[in-house]
Design a protein that fits this description.
Shape of chain A: globular
CATH topology of chain A: Alpha-Beta Plaits
Oligomer: heterodimer
CATH topology of the domain at 3-215 in chain B: Rossmann fold
Helix content of chain B: 55-70%
Structural class of chain A: alpha+beta
Strand content of chain B: under 5%
Strand content of chain A: 35-45%
CATH superfamily of the domain at 3-215 in chain B: P-loop containing nucleotide triphosphate hydrolases
Largest sheet of chain A: 4 strands, antiparallel
Largest sheet of chain B: 5 strands, parallel
Helix content of chain A: 25-40%
CATH architecture of chain A: 2-Layer Sandwich
Shape of chain B: elongated
Number of domains of chain A: 1
Largest interface: A-B, 20 and 24 residues
Strand order of the largest sheet of chain A: 2-3-1-4
CATH class of chain A: Alpha Beta
Number of helices of chain A: 2
Number of strands of chain B: 7
Number of helices of chain B: 47
Distance between the termini of chain A: 7 Å
Protein name (chain A): BON domain-containing protein
Radius of gyration of chain B: 37 Å
Order of helices and strands of chain A: EHEEHE
Strand order of the largest sheet of chain B: 2-3-4-1-5
Organism (chain A): Streptomyces tibetensis
């Protein structure tokens, strides 16, 4: 399943490397992380990683393949 | 994060002044991490916010309080400040949770320790969880009950509760909270919603809730906080900053740190407000780049560590300046938190971000940093941390070397961390070739009872060791070899090998540091259990008993629980074989309760204890119980499937089948079917006994007697049963010879004396000496009564029934062997027909024959129907007559119906 995770603020290139499995694009004061999510566990892991990096998640949604 | 916590808890040599020295140990076997029970110190820049303190005071009026907010929201410091201000109020226990607390046993051990540390200990009667994986429900009930009855309630603060993700712990916490009533105020400090039924507490008004919106700083509070950092801001500027950071405490502190260093802080903050980067990342970079190059380098490098002291940080930077740098950072309240003495940790939020920066700024350095950390930790005796970091470095020679050097290889077999260690080493690739890595692989194979691979790897390691020098590391590796050799010898039932291993271990123990032997008692305990088990197999009873007794009596602890239980089970088997069922039962029960604690996910242990209990149950004619125990033992997942266990299972199962009259099945079950290097006198004797009894039951007394030659004279229980068979085969002379040989031994218990007396009584009865028989049976009843040994009387034959039915023997048998005599005054009219004295067990074949007799079939018809010869049917019939104490067909059928056999 593919997901899009939208976090508040512009993510620096360095911090984006904390999500090596996802691509990212910065737009309108937000950063969109996107890519293939293996399963639910991976999804929750990504959320936890956002939390431990102090990122504010504003949206998280599956996108069609 | 914490690979370390997964292996096991440890204290990185730190202590905090507030907490008295603690002598208790947790179920993981390590000293408690004292810093986890101390209220975190507030930095000098901490701002007390009265509105939150006032709200938190509500916690004393509700059972549950939730402090819920993102990392860096100021939850922990708020709770610590509030708890320290309770003063003469209720005692406040503090526990900073860790990933390892997901295991209920660990969690509750820490909770109990937190209560102790705050001066409000639970009573000793409540005990402590003995196992990391589980906790006895009775312990939780007792704890809740005690808290409920206290005059002064306790406040229990669980910080970083989000690390406890286990639903079982949440359920148990809910249970204790509910039953402790007014005696417990629970404060959960967490980043994520806990798995408790919060809606219920909320609806009942039993919940105090402080969430992120309330934790956020107001502009006035932000201005006051910046003031503490030496920055004076107009309220509007503070308002903008709060808007930008959403009142996030960590963001405000970082922006103060960054702004303070700039020439125009107000302008700087304006720029920050206009910037659209993510707050934490931006601010961290801002603060980081203002540090000296050395400080930045140090911060990036220590980000791979959970906790660190200056010396460890120096090992990572190759410099010597960590002490002043860390003290300075702590003073500034930037990045690092002080744990006490000279240990620090990174603020968790910054740790994560710093690791991301490390990968960019020092690419490819991570493994090297882990390796350096592992070397330092190894030198300073922190084994779990060493293993975690050397594994993270992918340096398996170092990882396995640390385990072996520390004499910790036994932890792969026993103790709460064995699973985690196995998981850690499962990542080890074939490229690691040091002796220690081969030893770890050999241990892994032997633990799975893969002898071929295990032995090949063990030989490989030994050859490598033989080529290398002879130093202290070698001694530890060779001692580890000896342990594995002993295990292999036990699995193959080979006493010379086990003795060689034991001798070499005894020598090597002189060469390794004493404190390591003390630190890892499981090494010695496992080795001695292997030795004891192998000696027992080979029939060296007294040597085995001495060795096993030393293991069973060794001091407790989670890491030695398995060997102690196995040793106790083996000692129980020894008692059983000497005819002491009561003693055997007590030891076996101790072994089973050692291995099978309530609350543990599934029963564990080798099962030898259960098999002894089953054999004792057969002797007491409690056949259902015996079957249940044998089934349980068969389902046990772990344990060492050595010859002793196989023979124990064969013994218990065959005796049960014999008692049920299933002779053929018994003979089949009696064969332990285990390859062993040497023959075991007791295993062989028990097998021969069953075979012989089967011959007798099927009417072949000569074959029965022939097979009995294999019964060893040093087996008292076997010898008296053999005597009984000889007597039944009308060879009283041989029977008496056997009995005399037993009595010469003089170490025998009631299971032997009772059977011996019954054999003599049977002989006397056959010789027509009724008085002598009665006297001997009386003696047997007296001996058997205390142990409830019913089986020998049921097996004795038909002659005994009329004897027991008459006074005074009737009294001796009443209540345990035969139904109790009715109390006086209850006597009914007239005397009821004498109840069946003793249950008669026919073999399946005898039953088949008798069943056809009852259908009025002739002997020839029965033979044809059952595909037997006429002579065989006659033999079965004679056997039925003998068992039922009758002489004719009609009587046999009547008697069988009375006894409800038919």
């Amino acid at each position: 399943m593919r997901y899009e995770i939208r976090v508040e603020g512009h993510l620096s290139e360095t911090l984006a490397k904390a999500f090596p499995e996802l691509g990212h694009v910065v737009m309108a004061g937000q950063t969109v992380l996107f890519g293939h999510v293996v399963d639910e566990a991976h999804l929750y892991g990504l959320l936890a990683r956002c939390q431990s990096l102090g990122l504010r998640v504003v949206e998280m949604r599956p996108v069609p393949e | 994060m914490s690979a370390v916590a997964e292996i096991h808890e440890n204290v990185p040599g730190s202590a905090v002044h507030l907490v008295p020295a603690l002598s208790h140990t947790d179920p993981v076997g390590d000293p408690f991490l004292r810093t986890r029970f101390a209220l975190p110190a507030r930095p000098h820049t901490f701002l007390r916010r009265q509105r939150l303190v006032d709200h938190l005071d509500q916690a004393l009026r509700t059972p549950l309080t939730l402090l819920d907010g993102p990392a860096g929201a100021g939850k922990t410091l708020l709770a610590a400040d509030w708890a320290s201000g309770l003063g003469p109020g209720p005692p406040a226990a503090w526990l900073t949770c860790d990933v390892g607390d997901c295991r209920p046993g660990v969690f509750w051990a820490y909770v109990l320790q937190a209560l102790r540390a705050c001066g409000a200990p639970a009573s000793e009667a409540i005990g402590a969880p003995a196992d990391a994986a589980g906790v006895d429900h009775r312990l939780l009930s007792a704890l809740a009950g005690e808290l409920h009855d206290r005059e002064r309630p306790v406040v229990l603060v669980l910080d970083e509760y989000d690390r406890v993700t286990d639903a079982t712990v949440a359920e148990q916490l809910e249970f204790v909270l509910h039953h402790a009533g007014p005696g417990l105020h629970l404060v959960l400090v967490t980043r994520t919603e806990p798995l408790l039924p919060l809606h219920r507490y909320r609806a009942a008004g039993d919940l105090t809730e402080i969430r992120s919106a309330e934790l956020a700083f107001t502009p006035e509070e932000a201005a006051a906080l910046l003031e503490l950092h030496g920055l004076s801001l107009p309220v509007q500027a503070a308002r903008n900053l709060v808007d930008r950071t959403r009142g996030w405490a960590a963001g405000l502190s970082l922006s103060a740190l960054a702004a303070r260093e700039s020439s125009d802080p107000e302008l700087y903050l304006k720029e920050f407000e206009a910037d659209r980067s993510t707050v934490a990342d931006f601010l961290l970079v801002e603060v980081l780049k203002r540090q000296t190059r050395e400080t930045q380098d140090l911060l990036l490098r220590v980000s791979v560590l959970e906790r660190f002291c200056p010396d460890l940080a120096n090992a990572l930077t190759d410099r010597v300046d960590a002490e002043p740098i860390l003290a300075g950072l702590h003073q500034e309240n930037a990045f690092v938190e002080r744990l006490g003495h000279s240990w620090y940790q990174l603020h968790p939020l910054f740790g994560e971000i710093l690791r991301a920066h490390l990968r960019v700024r020092l690419p490819g350095q991570e493994p090297e940093l882990h390796r350096r950390a592992a070397r330092w930790l190894h030198r300073h005796g922190f084994l779990p941390e060493t293993l975690a970091h050397s594994a993270a470095a992918g340096d398996w020679d170092l990882t396995a070397g640390a385990l072996v050097d520390d004499l910790a290889i036994g932890l792969l077999f026993t103790g709460p961390s064995s699973e985690n260690l196995a998981r850690l080493f499962s990542h080890m690739g074939p490229e690691a070739r040091s002796p220690a890595t081969h030893l770890v692989r050999a241990a892994h194979d032997l633990a799975r009872h893969d002898l071929d691979h295990g032995l090949a790897r063990l030989r490989h390691a030994e050859e490598q060791l033989a080529h290398e020098g002879n130093d202290a590391h070698d001694a530890a590796a060779r001692l580890s070899c000896a342990l594995l050799e002993a295990l292999a010898a036990r699995l193959t039932g080979c006493p010379p090998e086990v003795e060689k291993a034991a001798e070499s271990a005894a020598e090597l123990r002189q060469e390794v540091p004493v404190h390591l032997l003390d630190k890892h008692p499981e090494l010695t305990a496992l080795l001695m259990t292997h030795v004891g088990s192998t000696l027992l197999w080979a029939g060296r009873y007294e040597d085995a008993r001495a060795v096993l007794t030393s293991v069973a009596g060794a001091p407790g602890g989670a890491s030695t629980a398995l060997p102690r239980e196995e040793a106790m089970g083996h000692l129980a088997l020894l008692d059983y074989m000497n005819g002491w069922p009561g003693r055997a039962e007590r030891k076996a029960l101790a072994a089973v309760s050692e291995a099978d604690r309530p609350g543990a996910p599934s029963p564990s242990g080798s099962g030898i204890g259960r098999l002894v209990l089953a054999a004792v149950a057969v002797d007491r004619n409690e056949l259902g119980r015996a079957q249940a125990l044998i089934d349980e033992a068969a389902e046990l997942p772990s344990g060492t499937p050595d010859p002793v266990l196989a023979a124990g299972r064969a013994l218990a199962a065959a005796r049960l089948l014999m008692a049920r009259g299933k002779v053929r099945d018994a003979v089949e079950a009696a064969d332990p079917a285990v390859p062993a290097a040497v023959d075991s006198p007791w295993a062989r004797s028990h097998e021969a006994l069953v075979t012989s009894a089967a011959h007798l039951a099927e009417g072949r007394p000569d074959e029965a007697a022939e097979v009995l030659r294999a019964v060893s004279g040093d087996q008292p229980v076997c010898a008296v049963e053999a005597a009984a068979i000889q007597l039944a085969a009308r060879r009283p002379g041989a029977a008496f010879d056997l009995l005399d040989s037993v009595h010469a031994e003089g170490r025998t218990g009631p299971a032997v004396t009772v059977r011996a007396a019954l054999v003599r009584a049977g002989a006397a009865a056959a010789a027509g000496d009724g008085a002598a028989a009665r006297k001997l049976v009386a003696q047997a009843l007296l001996d058997a009564r205390r142990e409830r040994l019913r089986r020998p009387f049921l097996d004795a034959g038909a002659w005994i029934r009329p004897l027991i039915a008459t006074a005074p023997l009737h009294e001796l048998a009443a209540g345990w062997l035969t139904p109790a005599a009715p109390a006086q005054g209850e006597r009914t009219v007239p005397q009821p027909p004498p109840a069946p004295l003793v249950a008669v067990e026919l073999s399946a074949r005898e039953h088949d024959v008798l069943d056809r007799v009852a259908r009025m079939m002739s002997t020839e018809e029965i033979a044809a129907d059952l595909c037997l010869s006429v002579n065989t049917v006659k033999t079965h019939l004679k056997s039925v007559y003998r068992k039922l104490a009758v002489n004719r067909r009609g009587e046999a059928v009547r008697r069988a119906r009375d006894l409800r056999i038919l």
